[in-house]
Amino acid sequence: MDFNLLIITPDQLRADYLGCYGHPNIGTQHIDRLATEGVRFSNCYCQAPLCAPSRVSFTTSTYVGEHGCRNYWSTIGTHVPNLVSTLKQAGYRTGMFGKNHLFKYDELPEVWDEYDEICLGNYDGHPDYEKAYSSFRLEANHLYNITKRLTQQTINFMDGSDRPFLAWVNYQDPHPAFTCPSPYKEMFDPAKVEIPRSFYHYDADKQPVRNEVWRKHSDMDSCSEEDISKAIATYMGQIRYVDDCVGLLLEALERSGTDKKTVVLFFSDHGELLGDYRMTHKLPAFYDCLTKIPAIIRHPDGRWAGSTVEALTEEIDLVPTLLETLGIPIPPTMVGKSYKSELDSGNVAGKESVISEAGGGAPTWKDPIDGYMINAPKLPTSLGPGSMIRKGDWKLSIYHDDLCELYNLKDDPHEMNNLYERESCKAIREELTLLLLKRTLGVKNRDVGMEWPEQDYPIDVRFEPLQKSHHDISHITGIATSKTPVPSK
């Protein structure tokens, strides 16, 4: 059977702000229903806590250290093997509605049969968006109120497809600015939301310097309890807006009868600080509020319903799992792991460790610029490379030129007690440092045997840059034109 694929991607959605991930009163009934009817990955980590690098990793199933996209505006060519091109070549009708943050813009018509690309940034230009923590009601008829519109476009695309389809809706919500229309803006009382402990209690001297620079540049000294409470309440409203639209999508599948032949993936590209450590938005750091993402897959025949994968998994594993579920061969360029067989058996072992990477290739900006105020983490916030590894309950973040972090997530789930310099943690620190080095050295490792399948994939990306990948190599320089014969055994 040729299954359809619907992907639903809200931007900057924290996993812990969904009911199925433990939020006590968010009320995300439709997303929670997906989790009940599918499999929920409870410890899935994105490969970068920034939009484009994360989406590139997801779609190509490769790590940041290989694809090289490290900032919000990064894009790849459509010739790089990826989920969308793979399905299009298999005969799928493809549609994308919302933000791109993925492919080169002039190449969008090459992969999408139908699309409406729209990215609102940080709602720049809205007169009420003054601070990074600003929250306000979005006028119902405002140009930026697009969440329901994107939902209807996605429904129209699915209803109008006469062959298997890939429909991908990329919502702006709940990405800042913290804004949404009524009734969502008024849905949660700011006086009743929980302000994170770390909003008040954090040790700047034991955190990366980039945190304090971002706090200063975003004027968080002026952010009151009332301000952050309003931001959190509005963020929750944005999530409910998305949840209602998820309900509309599921209802449309049922109405047309395509729910019985459509695989649904719900996932977010990364999380949101939302007051943690007295910061909002995101930056190249690796706290769980930024790197642990919601990921839910619903199979049309009901298998995996109600199951939860507690093991560590990575965002790059989602596309191989989807492709195998759809019966489509997984390109050898992809390094993620398919869990379809393990999901079918009811025993997903996951991975020993997960990694995440971020930060532009320049020194960390360590001194706040006097008088410089920005309402989003623009330059210099995103400078300074770093990598994170989690193994078991331990998480280590190493930065090229910034203060490193080590947390025991079992004892310190909110990552408030940095143990990196503690002598009693020397052994685990050294173990994770070596493991992170090995993991980052191995980002190009592909177990495909000695011979590369060059007939279908002319560029052997075990040796060449991923973005050299192309079906026509006649114009590419710097690659071997002949192969050394393999000696017979």
Automatic annotation (TrEMBL):
Pfam family, one: Sulfatase
Gene3D superfamilies: Alkaline Phosphatase, subunit A
Record-linked SUPFAM superfamilies: Alkaline phosphatase-like (SSF53649)
InterPro entries, per the entry: Alkaline_phosphatase_core_sf, Sulfatase_N
Keywords: Hydrolase, Metal-binding
GO CC, any one term: cytoplasm
GO molecular function: metal ion binding; sulfuric ester hydrolase activity
Residue ranges of domain Sulfatase N-terminal in the record: 4-328
Protein name: Sulfatase-like hydrolase/transferase
Species annotation: Pelagicoccus mobilis
